[in-house]
Design brief:
- The structure holds three protein chains of three kinds.
- Chain A is of the alpha/beta class.
- Chain A has 14 helices and 24 strands.
- Chain A folds into three domains: 2-90, Ubiquitin-like (UB roll) (Roll); 98-104 and 124-213, Alpha-Beta Plaits; 280-495, Rossmann fold, CATH 3.40.50.740.
- Chain A is 23% helix and 18% strand.
- A seven-stranded mixed beta sheet of chain A has the order 15-14-22-21-20-16-17, sandwiched between helices. In chain A, strands 2-1-5-3-4 form a five-stranded mixed beta sheet, with helices on both faces.
- In chain A, β23 and β24 form a beta hairpin.
- Chain B has helices spanning 4-8, 13-25, 33-44, 49-59, 63-72, 92-96, 99-110, 152-164, and strands at residues 84-89, 123-128, 140-142, 145-147.
- Chain B is an alpha+beta fold.
- Chain B has eight helices and four strands.
- In chain B, α2 packs antiparallel against α3 (33-44) and α3 (33-44) runs antiparallel to α4.
- Chain B is elongated, with a radius of gyration of 19 Å.
- Helices cover 41% and strands 13% of the residues of chain C.
- Chain C is an alpha/beta fold.
- In chain C, α7 links the parallel β2 and β3.
- The mean pLDDT of chain C is 94.
- In chain C, the strands form three sheets. Chain C has a five-stranded mixed beta sheet. A four-stranded parallel beta sheet of chain C has the order 3-2-1-4, with helices on both faces. In chain C, strands 7-10 form a two-stranded antiparallel sheet.
- The chains are: A alpha/beta, B alpha+beta, C alpha/beta.
- Chains B and C meet through α3, α5 and α6 of B and α5, α7, β3, α8 and β5 of C.
Chain lengths: 534, 180, 432
């Protein structure tokens, strides 16, 4: 351990700690900086994190200094403040005053640090500033403004060190230096939007988010990305019931500070035109809207013990929802007539960074619960031989032509979120919540339980899944004792045989990887992701 | 962008072998990049995109990296140069010793300003920084050699000689006696 | 100290045949190498050079032996670089050394590489010295053929490969970590320190970078000994120095004199004073990156590290620029600021933005478009650069700027456009 004094405060940190981090510990906030990033190599080019170290004649940058026992550091002395102010002036000397049209306003490193350390009258005439290229599209997701760039090199280092793709470089010398893609190259790797996250100014911005919303009007809610089985921790930024963008949330056990571009776009699905907003009933060859009370009556007319031939759910449903659905399906059908989903669906090549082959957020939960996914052919065969009601919760199994054909003679009741093939073929449609509209638990490929919170309200008359499922269970004479979410999570903990009944209500910030005894599987079942195969 | 094997036809066998020898000699493939760029430019007069692609493939470096070097170093050319590129020093010592007059004279003679090329592609005039000939200024660089102690008259003799294809001997081009 | 036989470095200057291996050997060349490989340990060579007090001749003046001893003793895979990137305005001595006497530098490099146990040495020559690159490559080939390079040199068991590396036009590659990065195949941008090259440099291995002139002195020190070297120069600045002299003196060129010689003696003696019709106004004594002194100031100095530092400037590279009375100091500063703006690598903000601004303001001054606020802005920009950057290029721009302003302020003040209203700062005030 090393004991050092920072701004008259004595702290003790492990040997080898970076002085930048030690200063954050002592001060409770970061030193001013642009180029330093904990997940990238040290560049030391922005020259803002300068501190005074007793015994050294010159100021030193803290990002490139390791603590030493007995070090005496000053981060707020007049000399340091003067230096920071001077360096900040140099950063701004050629910076275009774009704030009124720049998306970064409100979350901009230059703005923030100017307010903290600068607050001077600029003496620089705008006509003197170096002109560079503005609004250059450099990839499917990213747009570049070279004038705003402070050449911190974070984006270049990201593409070299994290994705290893090296699309970006810094060309020319001196104040002609500019960041750009190599000629003929696009910034098209699946992590390109992380460069927008780490760009401290508005040089790299998101095309998707461009001019959509001022950031100070956004509220943030923590969530879990539904794009694949990695379960990157995200932040949903929304305003007025609409999600505008997703950003990664740091979880060093899962995704670090990054997420993939595909995952970022999953918010769009929440506001798709195909959202189901009202219960629907088939009449005169079409689907007509009807009030919930009527839908409820029709539902219980269709769905009762003996009338349901087959029940299917989907690994896009949450842990609590799967537990409840399995329970209610148990009152309606035997184990052989219950499928966790369509096997192999949503599998696509992943990568060595974050993206999993398994593109479903909750397949591991199926395995925990012993819910099998069936290959399309097997499900089609089962349905072809069935008569009665097909109860579908989530997913879109009838998107498979074989399954759709096999289900032609069944009466379909669909509980879901989007108007897809299954909803179109259904006799009764019940509208429920998308992932961003529910407070729910998800189990990623590590077997980690993570919680996503409700960012926006569902559209129209769509309702919360778990409440509807509990309602159905009650109707079937089963009261699981889930009056509220905490109680529901205790039910789930019990179902999973967790030692602590409240384990799912007291999740650590990075999630929980519990010991879950897996239900033994049917011996003739093919190995799928759902049952623990790879 | 041309395919690497296409440009291999532009680079002579000898040049490609020189590059291979450099790769063998230098400790890493990336460190062979600068000398390899010189091989390309010495042969072709500039570094065409196809040659860049060839080096990207041969040395395993990124396109961004090659372009960083091409834009960072002043001597690498990304366009075909004029036949004779006259690079005149305009730093402090040459300035004191009359570089401006020599430059003005050359501009007048060639009918172009500093930084331009004559329409017939024969001459280009560039202003450069200190060439390391300060005691013999004003000085200009032409190819691998320097013409020093320049005066308008000497400049005229140089242009005349270049036009005829028989330029005066450069001051750095001393008789080299072959070693033992 | 002996001014007479001052040819430790310049013995073969001006000759047409000094570059030849046979000539070099006939005049005692490669004797030092034989002596070293014949029975000296690397650490002994380090001690010898320490004892001689040899200091880096590129500009920093750092004690060479001390620098060599920073290489960790158990180091494997050490690299040695000879810095022939000579681009400091006013400096052209390394060119002379390599042109007239390449083998001296090569021999010095082999001995120095041996001292730090390097296995591979590079000679980095600026790209503009095209003819020199060819010449030095030929000399290196000769050295290989003669058995001075390659495996098991002179049967000593020591092996050294040597590569001549051609630069491509970047002053900043003269900074040692910039040079290392350039050879690595990156832009020649300096690295942040720590780590220091002696511990982690080229490819993360211990690396020593020495200037040509420094290395060229090593063979003589080996054959004559530390005390003989110290018989030249002063106690703190032992040995000799090559001065590159430019400007309208009678005899510009490269001169080797002992350190500590009074400037006045040198000026009137070797340099022959000013040319007819010229008057001595000022002197930039160590390459453009050091503060300028007035003629009166430099006349009072002796030419060594200490005296020049006391006078408020630095010995630097020894690139002595004699400024005549007819010279317009505002014009000269514009020329210099253009240089630093052109050559800034652009990595760190104070230098990248600051060099551009110094040049812009200097240009305005020259055109007569400057306002009084510009002089304050100059000072503000200088303050935002000095001491705050990765490498000293920012300081190198500030020092001439400040010293010119300090010593020739009237010439600058005369360029201020007193009647011009300062341009309104905000776009709204300008009616945009």
């Amino acid at each position: 351990m090393a004991k050092l004094t920072i701004d008259d405060q004595v702290i003790e940190v492990p040997n080898g700690t970076r002085l930048f981090d030690a200063c954050r510990l002592a001060r409770g906030e970061d030193l001013p900086h642009f180029c330093y990033h904990p997940d990238l190599s040290v560049a030391g080019v922005c020259r803002l994190c300068q501190v005074e170290i007793e015994g050294l004649p010159k100021l030193t940058i803290a990002c490139n200094t390791t603590v030493r026992d007995g070090m005496v550091v000053r981060t707020r002395s007049p000399r340091v403040q003067q230096a920071v102010k001077q360096v900040l002036e140099m950063h701004l000397i050629n910076h275009p005053v774009d704030c009124p049209i720049c998306d970064q306003a409100g979350e901009c490193g230059l703005q923030d640090q100017y307010m903290d350390y600068g607050l001077y009258e600029s003496e620089v005439a705008k006509s003197d500033k170096v002109l560079k290229r503005k609004a250059k599209i450099i990839g499917p997701h990213v747009i570049l403004d070279q004038e705003r760039c402070v050449l911190c090199s974070r984006c270049v280092r990201f593409c070299e060190e994290v994705t290893g793709t090296g699309e970006l470089g810094i060309y020319n010398r001196g104040d002609r230096a500019e960041i750009d893609v190599a000629p003929g190259v696009e910034l098209a790797n699946n992590y390109s939007l992380n460069t927008v996250d780490i760009c401290p100014v508005g040089a790299l911005t998101s095309r998707d988010f461009r001019f959509q919303k001022r950031v100070w009007l956004l509220r943030s809610t923590p969530g879990i990305c539904p794009g694949c089985a990695t379960g990157c921790n995200v932040r949903l930024d929304h305003a007025g019931g609409r999600i505008y963008r997703l950003k990664p949330r740091r979880n060093d056990e899962v995704n670090g500070p990054w997420m993939c571009d595909g995952g970022r776009m999953t918010y769009k699905d929440v506001h798709a035109d195909e959202r189901l907003i009202q219960p629907l009933h088939r009449r005169e060859g079409g689907l007509a809207e009807l009030p919930w009370q009527q839908a409820r009556e029709l539902f219980y007319g269709l769905v009762k013990p003996g009338s349901v031939a087959f029940a299917v759910t989907d690994p896009r449903q949450s842990l609590e929802e799967l537990v409840l659905f399995q329970r209610l399906a148990g009152r309606l059908v035997g184990e052989a007539q219950l499928a966790g989903g369509v096997a192999g669906e949503g599998d696509a090549p992943g990568d060595s960074l974050l993206l999993a082959d398994d593109r479903r957020p909750n397949r591991r939960a199926l395995a925990w619960l012993g819910l099998l996914e069936l290959p399309p052919a097997a499900l089609a065969a089962a349905l072809a031989a069935a008569r009665g009601v097909l109860l579908v919760y989530g997913g879109d199994p009838l998107a498979h032509p074989d399954i759709a054909a096999a289900a032609r003679r069944l009466r379909i009741v669909y509980l879901g979120t989007h108007r897809g093939a299954t909803a179109a073929a259904a006799e009764l449609v019940v509208p429920l919540c998308a992932w961003a509209e529910k407070d729910a638990l998800w189990v990623n490929r590590q077997g980690r339980v993570q919680r996503g919170q409700r960012a926006v309200a569902p559209p129209g008359l769509a309702r919360e899944d778990w409440r509807v499922l509990v309602d159905i269970l009650a109707h079937l004479g089963d009261d699981p004792g889930a009056a509220d979410l905490p109680a529901l999570r205790r039910v789930v903990a019990q179902r999973l045989q967790l030692a602590d009944a409240d384990a799912l209500n007291l999740l650590p910030a990075t999630g929980l990887v519990p010991e879950v005894p897996t239900v033994p599987l049917q011996s003739d079942a093919p190995e799928t992701a759902a049952n623990g195969g790879s | 962008m041309d395919r690497p094997d296409q440009v291999a036809a532009d680079l002579s066998q000898a040049a490609r072998e020189r590059i291979a020898a450099i790769v063998a000699r230098y400790p890493t493939r990336q460190s062979a990049l600068m000398p390899s760029l010189w091989v390309v430019q010495d042969e072709l007069g500039w570094v065409p995109p196809a040659a860049v692609a060839y080096l990207v493939e041969t040395l395993g470096v990124t396109l961004a990296r090659v372009h960083e070097l091409l834009t960072f170093y002043t001597m690498f050319r990304t366009e075909p140069p004029a036949r004779h590129v006259l690079q005149v020093c305009r730093n402090i010592s040459c300035h004191i010793m009359g570089a401006r007059a020599v430059i003005a004279h050359l501009e007048k003679r060639l009918g172009i300003r500093l930084g331009e090329k004559t329409p017939d592609g024969l001459f280009a005039l560039e202003g450069v920084e200190c060439l390391g000939a300060c005691g013999q200024g004003p000085v200009l660089q032409l190819g691998k050699h320097y013409y020093e102690n320049l005066t308008p008259k000497k400049a005229d003799a140089l242009l005349e000689g270049l036009r005829k294809g028989a330029p005066p001997r450069a001051d750095t081009d001393r008789e080299l006696e072959v070693g033992s | 100290m002996s001014a007479a036989a001052c040819n430790i470095l310049s013995a073969r200057f001006g000759r047409a045949d000094g570059h030849r291996l046979d000539v070099y050997e006939a005049e005692g060349g490669y004797r030092a190498l034989r002596q070293v490989l014949g029975g000296m340990k690397p650490a002994e060579v380090v001690e010898l050079v320490k004892g001689a007090g040899l200091r880096g001749r590129g500009g920093a003046g750092f004690p060479t032996g001390a620098k060599w001893s920073f290489v960790p003793s158990a180091a494997e895979d050490v690299y040695f670089f000879v810095n022939a990137d000579e681009s400091e305005p006013g400096t052209f001595k390394d060119r002379y050394l390599l042109d007239y006497d390449p083998h001296q530098t090569i021999e010095g490099a082999i001995i120095s590489a041996y001292a730090v146990r390097a296995k591979l040495a590079f000679i980095y020559i600026r790209g503009e010295f095209g003819w020199l690159v060819d010449r030095v490559e030929r000399a290196v080939t000769e050295a290989y053929s003669a058995g001075y390079l390659g495996r098991d040199i002179l049967g000593s068991g020591y092996s050294l490969e040597m590569i001549v590396h051609k630069g491509a036009g970047a002053y900043i590659c003269g900074e040692e970590t910039g040079l290392i990065n350039s050879v690595t195949g990156l832009k020649g941008q300096p690295s942040i320190k720590p780590p220091f090259p002696a511990v982690s440099g080229f490819l993360g291995r211990p690396t020593i970078v020495n200037n040509v002139e420094t290395v060229a002195a090593v063979p003589w020190i080996v054959t004559h000994g530390a005390q003989a070297y110290r018989s030249y120069g002063t106690e703190k600045s032992p040995g000799t120095k090559l001065w590159s002299v430019s400007g309208p003196v009678r005899n510009p060129g490269v001169f080797e004199i002992p350190l500590g010689m009074p400037f006045a003696d040198f000026f009137h003696g070797q340099l022959g004073g000013m040319q007819d019709g010229e008057e001595f106004k000022a002197c930039i004594v160590g390459g453009s990156s050091v503060p300028v002194l007035t003629a009166a100031e430099i006349m009072a100095c002796t030419l060594d590290y200490e005296s020049l530092q006391e006078a408020g400037t630095m010995l630097g590279s020894g690139g002595m620029i004699i400024v005549p009375q007819r010279a317009d100091m505002v014009e000269l500063i514009k020329v210099l600021m253009h240089f630093y703006w052109d050559e800034s690598c652009g990595q760190c903000t104070p230098c990248r933005e600051g060099t551009g601004w110094l040049h812009r303001i200097a240009s305005r001054l020259l055109k007569g478009e400057a306002v009084p606020a510009d002089l304050e802005l100059l000072e503000k920009v200088c303050n935002g650069m000095m001491g705050l950057t990765i490498c000293p290029l920012a300081d190198a721009a500030v020092m001439p700027m400040r010293s010119f302003l300090q010593r020739f302020r009237d010439e600058f003040a005369a360029r201020i456009h007193e009647t011009a209203a300062p341009e309104p700062v905000t776009r709204w005030a300008r009616g945009e």
